[in-house]
Batch of 2 targets.
Target 1
Amino acid sequence: MIKPDAVQRGLIGEIVSRLEKKGLKIVAMKMLNVSRELAEKHYAEHREKPFFESLVSYITSAPVVAMVVEGKNAVKVVRTLVGATNPQEALPGTIRGDFGMDIGRNVIHASDSLESAEREISLFFKPEEIVEYNRIDEDWLYE
Ligand code: IDP
Ligand code: MG
C-alpha cells in the first residue's frame, strides 16, 4: 500500500514502476480513503503500541493506493524492495531508503507474511477485484 505521504508527494508512479520493473505482477490496484474502522483492522496487531493513534491518523489522512502483487516469494521480495521500517535506517536503493525521512512517514506498507497478506487483501479487495492474467515476460523473468 502506497501510504498518504507518498501519494501527496507524487510518488505513486515511481513506486508502482519499481514493483513492475522488478517483475512483480500487479493483479489488483485501487485508490481509496482508508476509514478509521479499516485502519484499526489493518493495524490490529499494533493496537497496544504507543504510536497506534498517530499511525491510524497518518493512514487515514489522505488517499492511499492499495495493490495486490504476485510473483515467486512475492512477500519477501516486496519487503526487500521496501526496506527497513525506519527510513533513516533503510538502505539506499530501497523505497523507504530512497524516499523517506521519518518512521511515522515511511511511504509504503508491505505485508510481512503470506498469512498477513491474505488477511490484508481481504480487508481491501473483493475476490472479483483480483485479476488473473499472464505477463508476456514471465518466461524471461523465471528460469
Ligand atoms: P512495517 O511497516 O515495516 O511492517 P511495523 O512494525 O509493522 O513496520 O509497523 C507498522 C507501521 O507503524 C510502520 O510502517 C510505521 O508507519 C509505524 N511505526 C512503527 N514503529 C513506529 C514508531 O516507533 N513510531 C511511529 N510509527 C511507527
Ligand atoms: Mg508490519
Target 2
Amino acid sequence: MIIPPRSPSEGCGGGDPEWVASLDILESAALRTLYAASRQFACATNRNEILDLLVKGVCALTATPNALFTSTATAERLLRVAGCQLPEGAREELHLSPQVLAMLDMRGALVQGESAPEWANVATSMNTHGPLLVLPIPMPPQPHALLILALPNGPLAPHQHLALINLVSDAVRALDRIARAEAIWHDASLSHSNRILAAVNAVTDIGLLYSNVIDQMLNAILNQILNALNLAAGAILIYNDESEDLEVASALVSSHHGQQSDLISLWQAAFLPTSIAEARKAANQGQVLASSSSEDQFFLSHLHSLGVTQLISVPLLAGGWLTGVLQVVVCDANPINQYQSQILHILARQTAVAIENARLFAQTRNDQERTSAVVDATNDAILMLDERRRVMIINRRARFFFGISERELQEKDLEQLSIIFNRIFEDPPRFHGWLRQLLRSPTERVVAEFRIIRPEARLLQCFSAPVMDLHDRYLGRILVFRDITREREVERMKSEFVSNVSHELRTPLTSIQGTLQLVLGPKRSGSEGLPQRARDLLNVSLSNTERLIRLINDILDVAKIEQGRIELRRETLSVEDLCRAAVAEMHAFANHRGMSIDMDLQPGLPSVLADRDRSTQILINLLSNAIKFSVGSQSVLLSARTDGSMVYFSVRDWGRGIDLENQERIFQKFVQIDSSATRDVGGTGLGLSISKALVEEQGGRIWLESELGRGSTFTFTLPVAPGLPTRTEPSGNQPLALLLGFTNDTARLCAQFNSVGWQVREVDDLSGLVDLPTAHVLIAVLPHDPSAAQALLDHLSSNEISRGMPLLTLGQPHSPTRPGIKMIASDASVDQIIQAALSVVATRQLHVLVVDDDRYVRPVLVRLLQRHGFRVTNVADGLTALTIIEQARPDVVLLDVKMPGIDGTEVLRRIKENPLTAMTRVIILTANDLGESLQSQVLRLGADGYLEKPITYERLISMVMSPRMQDENHHEL
Ligand code: ADP
C-alpha cells in the first residue's frame, strides 16, 4: 500500500514556501537534524555524498528504512544508489511499470495509489508488505529518481512529513549546485569569458548563500575554484586580526583528483609552516607567487613527491585590505597559463569580498546576539512594536510575565496582540485604549500602571517611549514593564505601619493637650494661682504638643494619600466662605507675626464643587507658608478669580521667594529648601505635597511663580460647581438664627445678625425646620390672638424639633408666656432683638453626653465642655449611653467609635433609628481610622459631625455649638 500525504492542502513540492513557512510545527530534534543535514549538504563536494546524506537524514527524521533509486539507460529500470536501514532481501534494482511511470510523470510528487497493483514491484524492491511512501526527486539527467520509504509503523505524522519535505528540498538544492559546477567545467562549448563569468557567479552565489556559516562558505568556494580551474587541491588561509597571522581555514583535494588525497598534507603538520610562510610572502608582496621559488628543499622535494609542479599563493584583497591568501596546487607538467591565472585573480577577488561580507555578517550577528542577550538579561519586560505596529522585540522577562512563547508574539500585529492581552490584563480595554493612543503619538513618553491576572497576578508599571534611529526616524514604540507588586506591598505595609503608630499616638495626645488646655485656660494665661514660670513651661508644652499633633496629622494625611484613601465630600461651596474661613483661622498667626492678610475676590465668583475641610486645609497651608516665609511686617494677599470652568485661588507673599531649581521639587514629600531657615519657623515639608494631592484629587492643579528675594505666588484651581445653586451653609463656627413668622424689617435684622457673625434664615412654619440645620436660636413672632399664641407656644415646646432649641418670642403685652421662654416686645428694635437672642443662647445650658471608654480622654473632654458652660454627662459604654439618651434627651452626643461591647457606629444607628432620639445631634469622635471608610459610613448613618482625635479645644466647642447636618444639599461624588 502506498500512503498518501496527510492532507491534500499540504502539497508536496519540496521547496514550497508554504512548507518552509510552517516550519514552526517542527520539534526541536527535527530542526537540529535538518540544520545538521543542511550544513553537510553545503560541504558536500559530489553527488553521491549528497544522496548518502539524504537517506541517512531520512532515517534520522522518520526512523524508517529508505532507499534512493535512479533510472539507468532505460527509464523503467532503476538502480539503488543509496539506502539506509534497508531490510534483508531489499533489491538493488527496481522495475517500474508504464502505468507507474505515467503517474510519476503526471504528478512529480508524493505518490499515492493504494488500489494500483502495479506498485507491487516497488514494495518488493524494499522487501516489505507494509505501507510505502514514494517521493520523486528531480535529479537531471536521470529521467527518474525515487526516494522510497518503507513505513512498517504506519503513516508519518504531519511534522515528520514536513521535515522530510524540507530535507529533500535541501538535498535537491545541493545536487543542483554540484550539477551546475560540473556543467561549467565539462561544458566544452562554454567560451572562455563565459566560463569566467559562470565561475564568478558561482562564487558570488556561494558567498551570498553561506555568508552565515563562514567555514562552509570557504569550503564551497574553494571547491568551486578547484573545479573551475581543474586544480588538484587548494587551501584558503584567513588573516587573523588577533594573532596577526594567517591561519588555514579550509583545505581541500578536488573531487576530480580524489586519488591524490595526500595533497592535503601540504597544509598539515610538518609542511604547514612552509605553506603558511609561502602565503605570508605573497601577502607581504601583494602579488601572486609560485612556490617553485621556495628555498625550502625539504618542502620542494615533498611537492615533487606529490607530483605538484607549482604551489600558487594569491593574496585575497578586498578594498585594499588583506583578508587572507588562496593557495592552489598545479599538478600538470605545464605551469598555470595566463588565462587560468586571470580566472584565479578574479575568483580570488570574489572570494575576498565574500569573506569580508561574511565577517561583517558575523559581526552584525554577534552585535545583535549581544544586544538581545542584554535585552533578555534585564529584569524588566521589554516589548517593542515596529512602525507597522507589529511585535519586533519581546524579551525573556516579557514572555515570562505574560506566559507566552516568543513564537506566539513574534510578528503579530496589534489586533492579534490585543486578543492575547485580553486574557492577561485585568482591565484589557484600559490597556488597549492607553496603547492605541500612544501609538498615534510619535513623541509621547509616559508611565502607567496596569494589573495582570494571568499567568500570575502582578502589578506592572509600564513605561513607554518612541524609538528613533540616528536620523530621528520613527522605528516604533517600546514598552518596558516593571513588576512593582512587591514594592507596592512594602509601601502599603510601611504606610499602614506609619498610620497605625500615628493612630496610637493620637489618643494620648488628646489627653495631654486637653489637660494642658484645662490648666492654662482658653487664653493660655493659666489660673491665678499658677506661678508665671510654671505657666511659661506649660505653654511650651502645649505648643510642642500642638506641633506634634500637626506633624501626626500631616503624616496621616500622607499615608492616606499614598493608600488612595483620601475621602472627599464634594459639595457646592461659596468661594468667599472658603476664603473667609481660611483667613479667620490664620488671622491670629499673622497678627502674632505683625502681618496682615488681604483678600481680593473677583465680584460674582461662581461656587466651586469641592470638599470644604480639605479646601480650607489647602488655603491654610498656603497662607501659613506665606506668613512663615515673609520677613518683617509685610502683608499676604489671598485672591480668587474665575475663567469659566475653574476658580483660581492665589496666595501671594513678598517674602524670600524660591529659586527656579527648587520650584519643581518643593511639591515633593519632605522637601524643605533651606532646612535651617525652615527650622526657625517650624514645618515638616509635607504641607505642599499634601496640598498638591488634595488639589489634584479634586480635579484642579497647583503651581508656583516665584523669584528669589521677591516673594512667591502659589495658585491652585478648583472646578466650578455644575449648575447647582449655592446654599451658604453655616460654616463650622457660624451660629444660626431661625426666624418664624417674622416680617418687620427682616432685611435689616439679617444684616445685623450677619455683622456679628450669625447666619439668619426665615421659615414659614415648623415643618420647614425639618430640612434645616439645627439652629442656635429660634425667634418666633407670637400671633396677636392670645389663644393662637398659646397654641403656638404649646406646639413649639412639644415639637420634637423645636423642643431642644433656645427660643425667643416676640409678643404683645398680653401674650401668654411660659417659664423658661424669653419674650420681648414685638416692636423692639433690631439691636434689642439681637441682644435678647444672644442672651437666650448664652443662658441656655446645652446638655452634652460624652461617650468614650478611654479613661484618660473622657474626663478631659468633660472638663473642657463644662468649662464652656455646658451641662455634661459622661459614660464609658454604648448601652448605658442609649438609655441615657432616651431618658435625658441630651442636645449633643459626643460618641467615640471604638468601644468594647456595642461600638459607636451601632450606638449611632440605634439613636437615629429610634424616632424619639433621632433628632439628637451626634458627633462622632475617632482616632483617624484608615481601616475603613469610616467617615462616610457614619455620615450615612446620620451622624451630624465628625471629629478626629486629637481634638483642639476650639474645634470641639465650635462643633458642639453648631454641628453641620447632612442634608440633601450634600453632594457626595
Ligand atoms: P513646611 O512648610 O511644613 O516645611 P511645605 O511642604 O508646606 O512644608 O513647604 C515646603 C518648603 O517649601 C518649605 O519648607 C519652604 O522651604 C518652601 N516654601 C513653601 N512656601 C514658601 C513660600 N511662600 N516662600 C518661600 N518658601 C516657601
